[in-house]
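ASSEMBLY PREDICTION REQUEST
Request ID: AP-0331
Submitted by: J.K., bench scientist
Number of chains: two
Total residues: 497
Priority: normal
Notes: Please return the full assembly, not individual chains.
Input sequences:
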Amino acid sequence: MNPRRRFLAGLAAPALSSLALPALARIWQPAELPEGAEAVLDRLDGKVPLIKRAYRPPNFETPIDYFREPITRNDAFFVRYHLASIPRVDAKTWRLKVGGEAARQKLEFDLAQLRKEFQSVDLVAVCQCSGNRRGMFSPHVQGVEWGVGAMGNARWTGIRLRDLLQKAGVADNAVEVAFDGADGPAIEATPDFIKSIPVERALDENTLIAFEMNGKPLPHWNGFPARLVVAGWTGTYWMKHLTSIDVRSQPQGGFWMNPAYRIPAHAFPAVEPFKTQANPQTQPITDMVVNSLVTSIQDGQRVKKGQMVDVAGVAWDGGRGIRDVEVSTDDGRSWTLALLGKDLGRYSFRTFSHRFRVGEEAPVVRVRAYNTRGDTQVEKLIFNPAGYHHNVVQRIRLEVV
Amino acid sequence: MNAIRMLAVTLAIAFAGAAHAGEEKVKLKDGPGLDKVRQNCIACHSLDYIPLNSPFLDEKGWEAVVTKMVKAFGAPIKPEDQKPIADYLARYYGKR
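STATUS: Completed
Returned structure:
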């Protein structure tokens, strides 16, 4: 694979020239994309220009520059939808239904009731699309060809799903809790986007129903007025525009649980199981694998001999928390511990930095993160047909001039 | 396609089309079958989904995509239109 970076070609275009763009709006592109597939910066209402992968259903990626801060701005947070019918939800008429055959009673709440009746909690957590970096798979796989920005880290404020479920009552035979949102398919025959999680995960104190993101109401494109936060698990479970919660005695059998969003059984030994959905061949994707992203330098960048260079970025995992980040500037021959930034919690991005002086040899920078269990990133891609869990150690070659 | 289905699709386009202006900028290559692609695909998604995956799909790959749209996503594509659509996609957006 020979990924290349293209610099924003449309900067001079009248439509974009007046917008506040980051100084270097770098768009990572998979190699060999033909005319028409090239990502462009375009804007959804309420968002800064993002990397447009597809207009409808909208799939827009956050440019790398926004990951220089540990918290991702609401107006730069990535957008990912599967289905094209996306209503503007009116918070006044919005209702959340809780029920299902393994719920002891059916309940319905409006937004004010949820806020009043349950304890408010907040949590910093990474929301990352299962397919983040799919565009970097070799060989390529089908799907939205994401670069590195189908992710974001925010402080989510809301209530614990557990508190709500306990109010409704969870029967002993409950195995999963499934979620639906207000968005749906453009035609009736398309399977609605419904996702399910194990009941244990639903009752985990870090699974929230969030109303706010970084102290503001959720943006429309990120699930207004309420979305699920399944801290540690990939974004597919973080149901946007949440409207119903179904406590189930049987596994949810919809398209979006199977065959969609599956990883090969045993391919990723560190991830959490999902017993009620697993079969001998596959299991649903669950928690995120350890990963890191360098935001301060890019492949091919020119540096001078003797110059000080910062290797900085963010690291994250599925909730065990980042313990160490190691940096190599000699293509992996030797490694040094990077300095870690402030700890915002085990589900958050953790910033790191390492400063070094450029010597005679052209530096080749590699970065690998470790979580508190000792899991780290892979040297070689673990190929899987849906293009998930890309956490290959980055390799950034600097040119000495 | 019956009248109700046609109405449903038309409404779907009108409704979803409001979701994001900009997709009119997506231009596909002109050629036989493009009309059927437009008629059948835009009810559910913008046409940039086609070039997005074009470098990776050969003739068989595109046939499988059309089949998936019909079988998994319920796209109301008439059987006789499925081959012309797959042929167009493979010819103009197929892996070389």
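REVIEWER COMMENTS: Chain A touches chain B at residues 30, 32-37, 42, 44, 52-58, 83-86, 139-145, 185-191, 255 (CB under 8 Å).
SIGN-OFF: pending second reviewer
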